[in-house]
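Retro notes, item 3 of 5
We never archived the inputs for the calcium ion complex last cycle. Fixing that now. Sequence and ligand:
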Amino acid sequence: MPKPRKIIIDTDPGQDDAVAILLALASPELDVLGITAVAGNVPLSLTERNARVICELAGRRDVKIFAGCDAPLSRKLVTAEHVHGKTGLDGIQLPDPDMALSAGHGVDFLIDTLRSEPAGTVTLCPLGPLTNIATAFCKAPDIVAKVCEIVLMGGAYFEAGNITPAAEFNIFVDPEAAEIVFKSGVPLVVMPLDVTHKALTTRARVEAFRNLGTHAGAVVASWTDFFERFDVAKYGSEGAPLHDPCVIAYLLKPELFRGRHINVEIEKQSPLTLGMTVADWWGVTDRAANAMFMGDVDAEGFFALLTERIGRI
Ligand code: BDR
Ligand code: CA
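Structure as it came back at the time:
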């Protein structure tokens, strides 16, 4: 087997972040160098706690978890308890974590790791607002060229928005950070709502998690049961989008996804469309492409992969 791919997961767990982290930890193709928590779905004190809960659930107390930024670069934090519940991980009561946070700031971990690892060997996987990544790029511009790739969940084009009619949550919370990342020149793969809204937790898929007969399978089913209530009521869909695991699934099986290499710009001015990802899907400008913007997923293949890997925990 080739050497595992080194990744850092930057995250604001969130039930869907949690499933993404479990997927990564269950996959021998990936070497999780560390997890950096950021404020997003819930405040930082909860996202760093939730990251520890998730690693303990996976039996991985060895994973390094760092607390990162507690607020967007220049705006007040917007959170999403209306989707994820008060703790961010509502749905099932899990034990309080006893593994410790790693010492130091998440941003410094990103900087130190990218400086110490060979150039082009570390992939960043942001699953929340891009505050930590943008802060690291501004504080240590020398690391930008060392990143192999950024595979992130954020944005939307055909699906427009979820937190506002025009913007997806992760980009909306910190559009200034998103702009820094999208203009960084690092190869980007973007999983927007256009993809994640096709990765729905239907009854059969949730039952497949439950039928694994494992603790992790039951927990994943309880999480998805909880957070789907919001999207089911809103969209009338069967189940909720499982956003963030798309990022990790792409690293494992890129052939599950289809997209276009296009220009994507971030709206930062208009109050009406703040945080919109203006994606030139149809190639109507001559702006240079800066992102592989995904548009479709083989949802059956995605859930088959996810279920099989969760079954290993
Ligand atoms: C994104 O926002 C969060 O609520 C989810 O965890 C996901 O990262 C979807 O818009
Ligand atoms: Ca997230």
